[in-house]
From TrEMBL:
Pfam families: SprT-like. InterPro entries: SprT-like_domain. This is SprT-like domain-containing protein. Residues 36-97 form the SprT-like domain. It comes from Kaistella pullorum. It comes from the Bacteria.
Length: 196
């Protein structure tokens, strides 16, 4: 997929950044359906080209953020070699510079969140509560909320199964599946539907 074909997934003003980052690299961009496990993926192909996948259901600014994350892998490997850790200091440094350098494409209310994240980039998008909450704004019309908003003993539905919230364990939450009575750990920003 060429850079210009990506325009419909991206916010305005991103193409100059992408053209610079893509450089002379041969990059195959694959737009995928929504995946629960990840938003994007990077891998170097046996022929020396690069493949990046990004969920096509993402909001434009999040799509660009994820694409930037994946391109940071390519650029970090190119600059520092393939022996570096995929989400190590070299990747963090590269991703930070890319985020700060392209901050102008993000909405004004998102810029401070991106800049805060860029100070110490994380490998997993879900580890930034501010970003997760920002990109779920449009979902607020439904009945879902974050598990951290519930109280001990509250009942909720997650992926069509009913649970009770037993309590907080360090950073996460211990819950009981009401169908099979097994205990499960939930992250604070899991989206759930409270049962009244």
């Amino acid at each position: 997929m060429s850079i210009t074909n990506l325009e419909r997934f991206l916010p305005e003003g991103t193409l100059p950044f992408l053209k610079t980052w893509f450089g002379e690299h041969i990059i195959h961009i694959k737009i995928t359906r929504k995946r629960q496990s990840k938003l994007g993926d990077y891998r170097k192909m046996p022929d020396g080209s690069h493949q990046i996948t990004v969920n096509g259901t993402l909001q434009p600014e999040l799509f660009f953020f994820v694409l930037t994350h994946e391109l940071a892998h390519l650029l970090a490997f190119q600059e520092f070699g393939y022996r570096i850790s995929p989400h190590g200091q070299e990747w963090k440094q590269t991703f930070r510079m890319m985020l700060v350098g392209s901050i102008s494409v993000y909405a004004n209310d998102l810029k401070p969140i991106i800049l805060k994240f860029a100070k110490a980039p994380k490998a997993n998008f879900m580890s930034s509560p501010d970003l997760v909450k920002y990109f779920h704004i449009e979902d607020c019309e439904d009945e879902s909320l974050y598990i951290e908003d519930l109280a001990d003993g509250d009942l909720f539905i997650y992926r069509n199964e009913r649970y009770s919230l037993d309590g907080k364990r360090k950073k996460n939450y211990l819950c009981t599946n009401l169908e099979n009575t097994k205990k499960y750990i939930f992250r604070p920003l899991a989206r759930v539907e409270k049962i009244s």
